[in-house]
Amino acid sequence: MEIIRLEEKIAAGYRLGYDEALELMRTTSPGELYELAHRLRTRYQGKRIDTCSIMNARSGRCSEDCKWCAQSKFHKTDIDVYPLVGETEAVQEAAHNASKGVGRFSLVTSGRTLTDAETDRVCAIYRRIGREVPIRLCASLGLLTREQLVKLRESGVEHYHCNMETAPSYFSKLCSTHTPEEKIRTIEWAKEAGLKICSGGIIGMGESAEQRIEFAVTLQKIGAVSIPVNVLNPIPGTPLADVAPLTDTEVLVTMAMMRIINPEANIRLAGGRNMIKHLEEKALYCGISASIVGDLLTTTGSDIDTDKAMFRRCGFEV
Questions:
Q1: pLDDT at 78
Q2: Which EC class is this protein assigned (predicted)?
């Protein structure tokens, strides 16, 4: 496939489907893919880096059996377990991140969904953050109903996060308690409510290279404007504890293809950054335009100031 011609088509609005993207990955050198992804990132995102932070607002005892997750009640892991976070604590965490220059803040809850009463509590938290803290609001609260998502949007939330996690053809190998179709239904309801979609997933869970392309095309089809690319951090006590890691080239090619298939989206460094610390600056060249900063859900993340220094070193505006 002639790279320059393809780049021109993408710039004119063309988007790759599965077969064409798979052919591109198979017939193009990694270096050429990195360069194309870099040019597309520069075209659509410039040198801006979009930063966000997440707060584990309810931890553990999750009813879902996702094989990668430390918070599932089906796995024996050493994590903190606590109920829905209090309003003051959440506002303080949002304020701390805003003081560090982080652009977005999201509450993330374990479990399949929230009750209506819990949704009302979360919406009250978001309304207070909106009044008191200069930071944009996102949410990751499971498979909410259409009505709950409308309430969330009315409370000031702009982006709703619901990871597809992996290729639909591979999902049932990793989780049996909900389906990709249920996730897509939630995503469609969120869009109807006026929320923009943040959806990505985890690479390195035993899926094939072809399934990583399927995954990227699925995210294109659902209209994700933010795509967090997590690299599996195998957690003792989970069924994926002993999965072999992807090679450096597999990680970088995946990130580049994610950009090529979703040229206008923010492709975001996310969980598992400790697994690819030596690759992060290369990843920033290969199409990455965003990052989660600070601590993650059950693991320690990167220090915000250290991240900002790296972004600037790589020529980004934070």
A1: 65
A2: transferase
Distances (CA, A) of 167 to 39, 143, 189, 282: 26, 18, 21, 25
Q: Which residue ranges of the chain lie beneath pLDDT 70?
A: 1, 60, 73, 75, 77-79, 295-302
The structural domain count of the chain equals 1
**What is the per-residue pLDDT across 258-296, written as a single tens digit (0 to 9) for each?**
999 999 999 999 988 889 999 999 999 999 999 999 765
In a domain, 1, yes or no: no
The helix or strand, by DSSP H or E, that contains position 137, with its residue range, turns out to be: strand 136-140
Query: Does 6 map to a domain?
Result: no
Tell whether 138 is in a known binding site. yes
Q: Give the domain range for residue 165.
A: 16-313
Cβ contacts of 8 within 8 Å, gap of 6 or more: none
User: From CA 122, how far away is CA 219, in angstroms rounded?
Assistant: 27
Residue 59 falls in which region: left (phi positive, over 0), alpha (psi -120 to 50) or beta: beta
Say whether 175 counts as a known binding-site residue. no
pLDDT on residue 298 = 46
**CATH value at residue 242:** 3.20.20.70
Q: Is 198 annotated as a binding residue?
A: yes
- pTM of the prediction? 0.94
Q: Is 128 annotated as a binding residue?
A: no
Consult the annotation and say whether 314 binds a ligand.
Answer: no
